[in-house]
Amino acid sequence: MYKRIRKQFSGTAKAGETPRSTCSGFEHVPEFEPHRHIRLLTFNIQVGINTSSYRHYLTRSWQHILPHRNRIQTLDRIAHLIGNYDVVALQECDGGSLRSGYINQVQYLAEAAGIPYWYQQLNRNLGQIAQHSNGLLSRFRPLDVTEHKLPGLIPGRGAIIARYGSEDDPLVLVLMHLSLSKAAQQRQLGYIRELIADYQHVVLMGDMNNHAEELLTQTPLKETDLIPLPESAHSFPSWRPEKALDHILVSPSLEIRRSEVVSYPVSDHLPIAMDVALPKGYLETF
User: Fold this and answer.
1) What angle in degrees, to the nearest 10, is found between the helix axes of 2-10 and 105-113?
2) Cβ distance 84 to 96 under 8 Å?
3) Domain with 117 in it: what CATH number?
4) pTM of the model
């Protein structure tokens, strides 16, 4: 499949049916192994546009609409990185439109990285022009995966929730891309807060377009006990990181073995990585 998709890009792509949210299915996806630590990564890939300067927002803006041959090389570089992780949250993916050569970028990255399960959430459907999407890639079979449209004045933001492990006490991963507006973030995080209220082992990961201090003190997340990365974990812009907009926030029940901003500037955001382990008491239930 990976080779076939690459060949698609070298010729003139033909428009097919309008893509929708889709996934790989669970066939050949290994069961969750709770005794292992889990390597997490969140990455805003900017639909495969290689941005390394503010001027590129102008000079390469056409790549948000039209295909570009170097985009596939950028995706291959991203796939090389994400192949080192167990669960990956992707933001600003294209689900298969003109600009991506009608390639579902979530599927492409999963297959190029050798990750068996993928889920693409279509959040803003602009037909053949763009298929704005989030993505989940996983080496483990989740209990279930659900998608949620986040509230906001302008529609088009979403979250994916994947549950792993025990049905009675699961590990819950919430993958999201929040709006730029602070008012919209309040509504969106209030919605997320309700979704995670009954769970003990929670991970929130994604592009949250805000700093952790404000997220955890000035939004509905202040009602949680989530643990952030250090304030110095700047991920934007990738060529001169000054803002911490991308996050992995975890419940105190989860042991953080390692966390870092990955120096891998192929998008306008840098990826964030974290290695977590479940508590021993939780593992004994398996």
Assistant:
1) 130
2) no
3) 3.60.10.10
4) 0.91
